[in-house]
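Entry for the shared binder. Reason: the reviewer on the internal report wants the predicted structure included alongside the sequence.
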Amino acid sequence: MDIKTNKQDLELDIIDLCNLFNPNAEITIEHEEIDLECRIINKIVLIDGDESVNYEFDYNYDKSLSALQKKSLRKKEIKNHLYDVLSKKFNKTLPWGSLTGVRPTKFARDLIENGQVKEHLIADALEKQYRLRKDKARLTSMILKNQRCIIRNDNLVDLYVNIPICPSRCLYCSFISNELGRVKDKLELYLDCLLKEIEAVKKIVTKKAYVVRTIYIGGGTPSVLTANQLDRLLASLTFPVGEFTVECGRPDTITAEKLDVLVKHNVTRISINPQTFCEATLKRIGRNHKNKQVLESYALALERGLDVNMDIIAGLPGEKLGIFKRTMQNLIDLSPENITVHTLSVKNGAKLRDEKDILSEQEVPKMVEYAQNLLLENGYKPYYMYRQKNQLGGLENVGFFRDEKVCIFNIDSMEETNTVIAVGAGAMTKRVFNNEKKIERIPNCKFIEEYIQRIDEMIEKKIKFFE
């Protein structure tokens, strides 16, 4: 779609909303806004080929509103009206209504904390004011209630370590990750640089009197490292934390020796990600593990007292609802502490974009609904959520927990309530200023080779960032 608006800060929101209805539609949208005293008039023109339709609406606002409140109201009114127009044109509704952001729960929490909505009324407000479907509004409310571990304290930080390396590249992946075979000869040098950055972070933590709340080693697949390499990395992470997570997503990279190293260094949680229990699908998407390896690695983790998160994906190519149901039932039988249900995102740069065998939007919502209902019936509760562009059906990713075993890092990072100090290639540090209600970000170099070459520069930037 072609978008023309006299307010540049609205463009991305309007584009995202239009793409959720129909990313391939060849439609031009022209938007004009006239700001009068306590009244704003908006004119929207939809041009589809030779057909042109004009829409006009206006709304009033209170003079006492702050600039931020006025901007928020303006965005809501324009997006809601455009949503209604597009909904009528394409004869469809969206599960998340006019919301286009990555973090619906963060948006909802802001409404509550700014005094715009009472917490017990948030589901109703989201449904009526932002066009959310009833089940999504209720899901948001449930997640907010399960995030009681949030602590807003600018001296409390989380540490993220990035290992952007995988055994192979999955069909749906567009992350900045490297296949192990291509970077194996650079691994030791990468670890050298990583340890150097971690030492610099330790000095920052000491100088700022920060308290590290959680450590999370992600990627990529950190468990592609050898046991010795893991030992070397983990030995440098000496912060006393109650939650220490290492992603071991590929079951074929997990060994008893590696898990022993994790336990030795007080790791408390790992991920083992089946994605599906259909081996034909695993082969199709470029994952080389077998179901047997999922079960074996899970048993090894349980023997060592580790909490486990398992990820699955709804909408993988070639899968129908019946196959997905079997995957979900297998997960329920295993009963890991956390289960994250992802909706497939057809990302730019992923090999999947060239695949023709992608499910219709009618099938995937049935999968997500089935998964969420099954998990709730079996004692799991939703506790964090995020959305991505190009997700099938305009849906979401939701993490569920049982027995109060939430992953605090997932909540802190998704809700952006605490500073996350991130190290490694492709890592993004986010500094949260709760009193000032602002967030500042500083990225590291994306690629391993560049990170190695510019490590001193990365460290110097990070030191200045926290001064």
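Summary line for the report: The first helix runs from residue 8 to 21.
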